[in-house]
């Protein structure tokens, strides 16, 4: 599989999708800082250190883990990362999209779809036959839900339970 996927050659911003490089970390971190959903996370301290750590875990060469960026001539406009999991009570390997984000100024141009499809092609190559993505139930869930449905995703067969932990 070619590492570089050219996604658009005319019309609104031409972009391509490729595996993230260490030199993309700063741009990804800056892009992530524009995420309006950041307060929904358990911590908003997603700075450069956090993204360096993610690159170590998901960057090029990690088995069954992928970290992709979408770029235009202007630079990084989106990123996606995820992995194929096998050590779970479900027997078949399945893939999880851990993060998928497109610059607010570049949305509606197919960048999110291209990132998702590029991840899925890699997941398929890793043996996964199912892909999962969590979207928030509150705080502007409409867009990610519409996005997932457009990708052909459906509500999964599990309900997520969670509980805060304290010492
Ligand atoms: C969700 C997100 C990744 C979509 O990125 P994008 O590049 O705008 O998506 P695309 O242009 O590929 O859109 C694909 C489809 O999603 C749906 N969609 C995207 N944005 C939408 C919006 N604001 N309202 C309704 N539907 C929308 C549409 O059906 C669209 O298809 P169409 O253009 O043919 O109508 C982007 O809005 C984002 O980064 N949001 C914040 C982070 C997030 O929610 N991540 C995903 C879940 S964790």
From TrEMBL:
CDD domains: NAT_SF. InterPro entries: Acyl_CoA_acyltransferase, GNAT_dom. One of its GO terms (molecular function) is acyltransferase activity, transferring groups other than amino-acyl groups. It comes from the Bacteria. It holds the Pfam family Acetyltransf_1. SUPFAM superfamilies: Acyl-CoA N-acyltransferases (Nat). Residues 23-167 form the N-acetyltransferase domain. This is GNAT family N-acetyltransferase. It comes from Phaeovibrio sulfidiphilus.
